[in-house]
Amino acid sequence: MPLISFIKNRPAYSVEEGANLMKSLLDAGLPVASSCDGDGVCAKCKIVIIEGQENLSSENETEAFLKEKNNIPRGTRISCQTQVLGDVTVDATYW
């Protein structure tokens, strides 16, 4: 099972392969910014990927559009549009 790890003082969290990143973080008790409840509209749920970018699903059309529209930098993913396929280390500005 993939592990989601954090650079701040939080324990790693194990998830099923293919789990949605936003839902996994919420299930772990972490706040995830969102005004669209994960419908892929607001892009507030952006998460910085510290390590393991290759262990996440490829960007879909919705994520690519949101990242371009909102000038979201490389290395940052829209968590509601991202599946965890292997171990990753993540961070958010609001944690």
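(the above was protein one; protein two follows)
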Amino acid sequence: MANPASDQRCPCTSGDLFGSCCGPVLASGSAPTAVRLMRSRFTAFAVADVDHLLRTWHPSTRPDRLDLDDETRWQRLDIIDHVAGGPFDDRGVVEFEAFYRDAAGRGTLRERSSFVREDRLWLYVDGVVRSG
């Protein structure tokens, strides 16, 4: 799936345009905050940008490869909570709920994700899936 045009709404459902939201983060791999990285990773799942997902995944937990399900359509992201993860922090936590549709119907994924900032880059470390 191709990235949206710069003047289209961003798939992360921030309400911003792709060109001023996740577009620059997908292009560079650099986000100013853990929340912005989380939004860009959701967008990467929505547009099947495996390269962005892997390069923003911490090497200590990153898989060798990532196969995305072609049947899954990521539709909406809600940020539930975040702790730290700002431009002057080294660590951050972002809790989110992602809404999707797949062959079985509609579903959600709620996760509390950990991030670290190394060499001025935010990286996804891991997450704990939460129920409702």
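Reviewer note on protein two: The chain has one domain: 18-129.
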